[in-house]
Amino acid sequence: MYRYFYYLVFLNMLANIILFAPRILISHRFEGSMMAVVLSIPLGFTLLYVFVTSIRKFTGLGLPEILKNHTPNWFRIPALLFFITIWFFAGGITLISFSEITKKFINPDISSMIIVLAFIILVGFIARLRSETVLFSTEILIVMNVPFIIWVLYKTVTNPSMNYDACMEIVTHIWNMPTWDSLAAGTYIFTGYTNLAIFNRLMGTTKKMPFLWTIPIVGSCVLLTSFLIPVGFHGTINVNTYIYPWISTSDSMRVEFGLVERVLFIFIYLYTNISLAGSFIHWHVCLELIKSLMPRKKEKNYFSWVVIGIMGLITYLLSYLFNDESLYKTGVLFLNIRLASEMLLVLVVFMIARRIKR
């Protein structure tokens, strides 16, 4: 089952390309983004490695069971409530963002509220399924979409419009110190490992995850391409004028002899699948954390539907409050809080694992 761990990590890496992280790095391209990329790789991988090696000591247990067995209620309940909020918001902001992208680039005549409602229904239905089924769904989506995503990335790096001199101009600013915003955006590519908070229940008895060394290699490639390719297409100055740099980049390419000439439509289709998969994983983890706070004997069959309904309603109402600028600022704030909360999560699990070892 350990291959599903890599699905979780790589899925989050791919989702990183189209949402807030590239725009944040681009907005700080002269103010330390390159140094943030350099620092994000060892920092993100260190957090991943410490968390994975620590939680794997608790075979078959998720974060709720670990906290219940080894921490008092005054710590366990507030900690779970905090992480519930983080995972819920991670899924919700992705749904809202993609509803805006779909409206702008696919069909401007459809209300974004209808789109976000459709996404909520789809994601909510999958999120309430068993953890095994959620992982199987993730595997199917990755196998079906990743080859085409690799093809799109290949088309970008070999495109005649790709200006590598612009990329090298950004690299020359590598010695500028990074901001917290850019560091938070850079480390986001590794965040998929935190979903082991629930899915560790299914990872079998293997204490160590093999091939962890591949993660920083793939992560480096994903992070550099997601940041530098839009710069190469649009230039060091103009690239900052785009709300969704990678959408505009994909729209700069075409497949001359393809069934669909504009790469934009292929790109959005692929990343809709990837981002919705990320959303139902986040909401599934959120749902399982909420269920862990409920006494088992009081949990009814309809409880999951009620929780998903409330999560969907909150997301639907929040979508009224956002425009492009406020959504971006909220995404930046979320990534900043996410990095701090991720460090807290890793520290808690590490300290518990270390105490048990003694």
UniProtKB/TrEMBL annotation:
Question: Keyword annotations for this protein?
Answer: Membrane, Transmembrane, Transmembrane helix
Instruction: Answer whether the UniProt record assigns the keyword Transmembrane to this protein.
Output: yes
Keyword Cell cycle carried by entry? no
Q: Where are the transmembrane segments?
A: 6-26, 33-55, 75-98, 110-127, 133-154, 211-233, 263-290, 302-322, 334-353
Q: What is this protein called?
A: GerAB/ArcD/ProY family transporter
Q: Which organism is it from?
A: Paenibacillus marchantiophytorum
